[in-house]
Amino acid sequence: MPELIQPTDDDARALARGLIDTARFGALAVHEAGTGLPMVTRVAVGTTPEGQPVTLVSGLSHHTKALELDTACSLLIGEPGDKGDPLTHPRLTLMAKARFLRHGDTDRDALAAHYLQSHPKSKLYIDFPDFCFVKFEVDKAYLNGGFARAFVLGPQDLGL
Amino acid sequence: MPELIQPTDDDARALARGLIDTARFGALAVHEAGTGLPMVTRVAVGTTPEGQPVTLVSGLSHHTKALELDTACSLLIGEPGDKGDPLTHPRLTLMAKARFLRHGDTDRDALAAHYLQSHPKSKLYIDFPDFCFVKFEVDKAYLNGGFARAFVLGPQDLGL
User: Fold this and answer.
1) How far, rounded to the nearest angstrom, does the alpha carbon of residue B29 sit from its chain's CA centroid?
2) Eight-state DSSP code of residue A75
3) ipTM
4) Which tens digit of pLDDT belongs to each residue from B7-27?
5) Which one of B2, B40, B61 has the shortest CB-CB distance to A40?
6) CA distance B118 to chain A (A)
């Protein structure tokens, strides 16, 4: 992401919002439990009915244990295709805090029903007792629309 | 990555090595400059002639500035296809330290020639003065071969 940040416009907002709405998976960065080192792993990505980005994770996984200790995280979405230079494909880095939504919590079942529409294969494990949702409360977003097309967005630019 | 780590075997080593050898891009986690927060961005990924993972970055980018202040980083490689559950696709999390290789450094030109073979489109910017290589010196790797197929590998398992 070049430092030459462009002024945020409606095209940038729509591009970022579209990346969130169409994401099926992404890369999650956390502070690793125990070491505090940066650690990045793959996670599924969907949205809440209100459009907030969310993932479904196992409590047994490294990233979940990390987020339980330190909710600061970052989520990269926007996947390149198989062709062309991957760095010309738009992508969005969300700077966020993780908020857990577990079995029994208000809105968990509504979120599960919504999530299954975009992730039908997750029905195999969505109700496992160790699985929970993590909602991403976005503080800031870095949008890279390709070389020299960098923007810094706030939650309001994403409709959050 | 479930905590139920399996014993490392040659299949796991070959899978991990194959993910490194075929990666064209990945997700890089760093401590953001200024805030220290986890930040994940997309980077191109190739290898040195010796098989060490490497990226080519602009000195103007957020992640490069972050690595100049703190070399601790993590690289996720192994991209899901367009179909199926992305979480069943194998992926590799490298826990690493960044080592810069800049214009004029020994081996930079040999690396550039090697890198261009796998990333021909980078010839448009590889010689820009602000671009440099970052080699990943791997301390540890977390291999996830799909549900319940988790391994922890050392550099020697990756031929590094």
Assistant:
1) 10
2) E
3) 0.95
4) 999 999 999 999 999 999 999
5) B40
6) 11
